[in-house]
Every structure is written in structure tokens, then in C-alpha cells.
Amino acid sequence: MLQRVIIAIDFSSASAQALAVAREHFCTATLRLLHVMRPSDVAAPGAAGATHTGTSPLASKDLRESAEKEALARLESWAQEGEECQIVVGNAAEEIMRFTEEWGADMIVMGTRGRSQLSNMLHGSATEWLIRHARQPVVVVHEVSMNDSTRAHLPPTEMND
């Protein structure tokens, strides 16, 4: 029986659907929502790819803490009672695998947006990497039509209003 399940959340509709599927099918397990922030998002909140030059290390620390706090608040808005939330910074695939092993998770659940093969080649795919390298099973949820029972487990977002 599964005891610990990681749900990778990137705030896309695909990750919302993955969370709904995890809630419906793994309801007896401890669910931990995991969001991986890119280092560029931490360095310059609100301006992906931008960098701050000339700022003091204390200001950089404040920016990082602010970005992490904001992301955690957003993640907690997706969580239901009893679900745990975690924010980490780094490469999505590597951090999901590292955290899964550290926490002792039995399974990873994540969504996929079904990008083209060319897009995956150019940008990489955390999902594909985890399927090949994770030691735990990986459940991949595609953006698909959902029945009312599964839709009831979606997090509170604009997409299901």
C-alpha cells in the first residue's frame, strides 16, 4: 500500500489534473505537493531570466525568501486539509527525484502538457527524465477530459470556475 506520494506542481492545468487524480486514487496516502522553483525565478521574482546586478547579498537573500514565500502561499492555496507542501529550488527533474528519495516517497504523480518532440528536445522534459531515472513509479497524467468525480478534486483555480 502506498504511504507517501509526491505530486509535482508547476501550477499548470496538467498539474492540477495530476493532483486531482492523486487525490482520487491515492486518498489513503500522505500527499505532498512539491513545487520546484527555477533559480532565475528566485533571483528575480516576477521577471524570469532577469538578474539583479549590484545588489547586496542581504538583498538577494530577501528576494529569495520573498519569492519562496509567495510560491509557498500559492501552493498552499492548492492544498487540502492533511496535504503537505514543499518548495525547493533547482532543476525540476533532479529536485523532484532528490526530494522523493529524501522523503521516502513511494510514487511520483505529475502532469504533462504533451509538448512536441522538438520542444522537448529544445527545452527538455522533467517528466521524460523522471520516467527514465526515478527509482519510484511515476504516474503521468495528461490534460484530458475528466469525469465529475475527478473534477471535484481539482484545486481552486481559474481553470475550473
TrEMBL record:
Cross-referenced Gene3D superfamilies: HUPs
Membrane-traversing stretches: none
Domain UspA: 1-142
Pfam family, one: Usp
Source taxon at top rank: Bacteria
Regions of compositional bias (Low complexity) in chain numbering: 44-55
Region described as Disordered: 44-65
Family statement drawn from the similarity comment of this UniProt entry: Belongs to the universal stress protein A family.
PANTHER family: STRESS RESPONSE PROTEIN NHAX (PTHR46268), UNIVERSAL STRESS PROTEIN UP12 (PTHR46268:SF6)
Protein name: Universal stress protein
Species, as recorded: Thiohalorhabdus methylotrophus
